[in-house]
Amino acid sequence: QLQASGEGLVQAGGSLRLSCAASGRTGSRLAVGWFRQNPGKEREFVASISRSGTNIHYADFVKGRSTISRDNAKNIVYLQMSSLKSEDTAVYYCAARITSDYTIFTSDYGLRYWGKGTQVTVSS
């Protein structure tokens, strides 16, 4: 249902855009978000966006450095990351659940759909 892409190796201070494509007929009914995880660490919330894109929420550690957006005509959600730091290195996952409009999430509770992770590596 969800296909994440955009993995890459960038230098600190650089930018990268991740994409999450939803297949099937539920794409426009999904609130979508991004999480990240490093080996041995808890998965952490990065950002989420409501069905229409009206509501957005960011984790404090990416606020001001990342922008989540969506193209509902294409059923794709983007995470544009800039001013990347070495601590942003992680496997990034997109996740979603069917919601009413305006709903977003800040945890992985109840998220039905998950994409495979995509590796982001930031070199210092």
Protein architecture, described:
- The protein is mainly beta and 124 residues long.
- The chain has strands at residues 2-5, 8-11, 16-22, 30-37, 44-49, 56-58, 66-71, 76-81, 90-98, 113-114, 118-123.
- Strands 2, 4, 5, 6, 9, 10 and 11 form a 7-stranded mixed beta sheet that branches. Strands 1-3-8-7 form a 4-stranded antiparallel beta sheet, with no helix packed on it.
- Strand 5 (44-49) and strand 6 form a beta hairpin.
Quick gist of this model?
This protein has no helices and eleven strands. It is an all-beta fold and 124 residues long.
From the structure above, extract its key features.
0% helix; four-stranded antiparallel sheet; seven-stranded mixed sheet; 124 residues
